[in-house]
Amino acid sequence: MKVYLDYAATGPIKAEVLTEMMPYLTTDYGNPSSMHEWGRAARIAVDESRIKIAKFLNADPAEIIFTSGGTESDNLAIKGMVNSVILNEVKNLDPSAKPQDDKFHVITSQIEHHAILNSCKTLEKSGVEVTYLKPNTDGIIEVDAVKAAIKENTVLVSIMYVNNEIGSVNPIRAIGKMIEKENDARELKILFHTDAVQAAEYQNMDVDYLHVDLLTISGHKIGAPKGVGVLFVKKGVNIMPMMHGGEQEFGRRAGTENVASIVAIGKAVEELRNEKLEIRNEIKNIRDYFIGRILKEIPETELNGGKEFRSPNNVNVYFKYVEGESILMNLDLVGIAASSGSACTSLSLQPSHVIMAVYSDAERAHGSIRFTLGQNSTKEEIDYTIENLKEIIAKLRKISPLSPKEYK
Amino acid sequence: MSNISNLYSDKVMEHFKNPHNMGELDNPSGVGRVGNPVCGDLMELQIKVENNIITDAKFQTFGCTAAIATSSILTDLVIGKTIEEALKVTNNAVVEALNGLPPVKRHCSVLAEEALQKAIADFQNKK
């Protein structure tokens, strides 16, 4: 049996999506910037997809920028926005609102994706001040923590919607509303970005409801191919492009459009709009069944992250006394795909920064496994996984010098 | 689907799947515990020495595939050797016996060498 439980990493292209994008790889191969028939067909396809994305986010098509994926969207949001403030908006500010030494401040969290963390670290090198907020014990960034970190020179807050490792769902709407209120009394406005890469399939994505100025989506997490993403940029928000060239994407992202993939991501969100609630409940039931059985049937296991504000597709468990990479390898040998926060599975050899931020426990990070469900996941797959997990954990605990006698 | 041997050699997988000499000895002559669970690797090697010869060895390991395989092959390499011969078993010998390790996993073989050195030192101190 083959069981794929790594949907937060990536998933298959949905059949309907593939059908929709195919012509743009074969017959309708025009460049949207060309004025002839081929070009016009491609232009219409890109525009239609933009309308679909806008509908999905309750935004205006002019607020949608297509990118090469979540990482580019995050980079563009963080660096493009802050650099634009530094270079362009300072001169328009009332001198009294200008921070001392022109030093601007960004607030983010310790549990963000590396696309955000490393963009922020790059900004720090050019003199921007960054606060990395610590999550609470459930892995949630609290509104009050964000509020307390706001300073006179704050220009951007970037908090992820759903954490990719432990599935914690942050209170984006509450943070957005709080920032809006703060802005009423400020000359130097704060913008709010959320990385919604892991949220698109299951959460409310209405940018009005969320009160966000910038929002990131990735194609391959929702049934479109790898290599396409979206950045929502609210009207009136200036960002400085990172790609310089032609006038594509309203001059904010140069380069010939990835037409077929853009068509695909438009189709993918259209599919999501129709099915969201149903799949959400079904997957949540399988998730709870899975978590329940692991915690009950395998001793000394703990759930990473809280139960309440948790993505319906995320299961992340700490197996005491054993190491994640060897669990993954054993799972792989019986056809099960999952992922781990263990240092041994990463090229950097660093344990998961997310589990470290929440629990400050390296042993826990090394012994944690993430299973992420998708629309094709079944209860039978979970049963197969549980039966194998029980054997694998027992075997590895027998080998481990850390386990108590009863496991030997 | 890609074969697992793209990642680890067949030899590594063989020792990972069915580790040799796993467990603890009654009255070991020397014990070497190296690594740290915080770093993700912890290895314990126990040796039995009779007439200057390592007659038995057992290991326990908390760690990745490579860490488990290196501990297992280490026991194979040292059983039957004199102390002097065993002291010459280097991390490179461990890597060779496993038909290679990925570069990022070579520290596991260093850990194995350290465990062996420590177990022998422990035996010599006790004498």
Task: Describe this entry's structure for a reader.
The complex is a heterodimer of chains A (408) and B (127). Chain A has 408 residues and is of the alpha/beta class. Chain A folds into two domains: 134 residues, Aspartate Aminotransferase, domain 1, CATH 3.90.1150; 257 residues, Type I PLP-dependent aspartate aminotransferase-like (Major domain) (Aspartate Aminotransferase, domain 2, 3-Layer(aba) Sandwich). Chain A contains twelve helices and 13 strands. The model of chain A has no long low-confidence stretch (mean pLDDT 94). Chain B has a single domain, classed as Sufe protein. Chain: A (Alpha-Beta Complex). Chain B has a three-stranded antiparallel β-sheet with strand order 1-2-3. Chains A and B meet through helix 9 and helix 11 of A and strand 2, strand 3 and helix 2 of B.
Report a brief summary of the structure.
The complex is a heterodimer of chains A (408) and B (127). With 408 residues, chain A is of the alpha/beta class. Chain A is built from twelve helices and 13 strands.
Provide keyphrases for this structure.
heterodimer, A: 408 residues, alpha/beta, Aspartate Aminotransferase, domain 1, Aspartate Aminotransferase, domain 2, 2 domains, 7-stranded mixed beta sheet, 4-stranded antiparallel beta sheet, 13 strands, globular, B: 127 residues, alpha+beta, Sufe protein. Chain: A, 3-stranded antiparallel beta sheet
